[in-house]
What does this fold into?
Amino acid sequence: MPVAARQLHKSTSERILMRWSKSCALALLTAATLSAGCSSVQLAYNHAPALLQFQMDRYLNLDQSQEALLSKELREFQAWHREDKLPLYAATLQQWATKLEQPHTFTVAELLEKQSELEQTLLVLGQESAYRLAPLVLTLTPSQRERLQSRFDRANAKYARENLEDPQAAQAQRIDNFIERYEQWLGELTQEQDQTLRQWLLTQPSGAQLWAQERLARQQALLQLLADAQDLPSAEAAAQELNNYFQSLSRYRVADLQAERQTRQLALAELTAKMLNSMTPQQREHLREKLLSYANDFQALAS
It folds into this structure.
C-alpha cells in the first residue's frame, strides 16, 4: 500500500525541494495529496502546484519568466495526472478496500508485488516529470545552482543533527515514526502489535551513515546534471538526461545500500504482513474506510 499519509504541515513543505534529489519534484503532486488528512485530500491536491512553485522558488530564486514557465508546466502536469492517473489510483484503492470486506491472509509475495507496482508508478511519474521540468532546467543560472547547493548543505546538516549526533535519540524517533505510520492506517495498535514493531526495529540497523552518503551522492548527481544541461542542444535532450536521473533513483548509488536492498524490502514486507494479519476487526474496518476515503477523493478529483 502507499506510504502512510501524514498531515500537511510546515516540515512537509520544507522537504519538497530536497526530494528533488530523490525523485521528481512534479511527482510530488501525488505526494502532496497523500500528505494531507483524508478530509483535506482534494484541497491539498488542488493547491499542490502553487505549493511546489513556492518551494522551488525558495530553493532556486526563480525570475519572472522562469516562474511563468514552471507554473504552466505544473498546471499541465496536474491536468495529465488528474485525467490519466487518479482514476487508476481510485480503482486500485477500491480493490484493496473490497479485499478487506472479508478475512484475508496477506502474504509477503503479495506485498512485494504491491511495492513493485508502486515503484513502477513512480518511474512513470518521473518520465513525465522529466519532460515537464526540462525547459526550466535549461534556464537555471550558476547562482541558482549555487543556491540549491546551499539548501542541500543546510538540509544535510539538519539530517546529521537529527540522525547522526545522538544515535539513541534518533532510534527513539525512528520507533515513534514507525508506530505513527501504522496507526494512521490501522488506528490504535494493540500492545502486541506495538511490541512487534519495537522489537523488529531493534533488529534492523539504522544505516544512517549510509543514507547520509546516498543523499549526498544523489544531490551531487543532480547538481552535475543541472550544470551539464546548459550545454545540451534542446529541451528534448535535457528531458532525456533528467529522465535517466529519475530512473536511476530506483537503485542506490551507495554500493552497501544497493547490496542490502532486497533484504530490507523482504524484511519490511514480512513485518507488514505480520501486522496486517494481526488486525482486529476494528482495525480492519479502519483500514478499509481509510482506503475508501482516498479512493473517493481521487475519483472526485479525476471527475
